[in-house]
Amino acid sequence: MGKIEILWNQSALDDLERIVSYIAKDSPLYAEKYALKMIESLEILKTHPCSGRIVPEMNNQEIREIIFDSYRLIYCIRGSQKIEVLSIIHGNKKLILNF
């Protein structure tokens, strides 16, 4: 099996943009670094797609999450070669199942 491709849906990209915009109010440089580290935290999925835990609210083997800082990066395993990042939510927020 080759490397898995990580794709971002629009909702997840919007979530990332909101997070970066919020942090950038205090520090644009830190906001950029934070976003890069968040994105890098998903790199493990290219070789170990099941390394994230199953999202408890979903109880679906294909929908998992990586925890980064206080955020839940929710993704779906799409076949054997693709991961789709579905959403990024703060750990204190309730997960709304809209994906």
What does this structure look like?
By secondary structure, this protein is α+β, with helices and mostly antiparallel strands. It has a single domain, classed as YaeB-like fold (2-Layer Sandwich). Helix content is 28%, strand content 29%. The protein has helices spanning 10-24, 28-40; strands at 5-8, 53-54, 63-68, 71-78, 82-90. Strand 2 (53-54) and strand 3 (63-68) form a beta hairpin. The longest helix has 15 residues, at 10-24.
- The CATH fourth-level homologous superfamily: RelE-like
What is the number of domains? 1
Given as residue ranges, the uncertain stretches (5+ residues, pLDDT < 50) are: none
| Helix-strand string | EHHEEEE
Strand adjacency order, main sheet: 1-5-4-3-2
The average pLDDT is 93
How far apart lie the N and C ends? 27 Å
Task: Please state the overall shape, judged from the principal axes of the Cα atoms.
Answer: globular
Strand content: 25-35%
**Reported CATH architecture:** 2-Layer Sandwich
Give me the number of helical elements: 2
Backbone structural class: alpha+beta
What's the assembly state of these chains?
single chain
Tally of strands: 5
Largest sheet: 5 strands, mixed
* CATH topology label: YaeB-like fold
CATH class: Alpha Beta
- Computed over alpha carbons, the radius of gyration is 13 Å
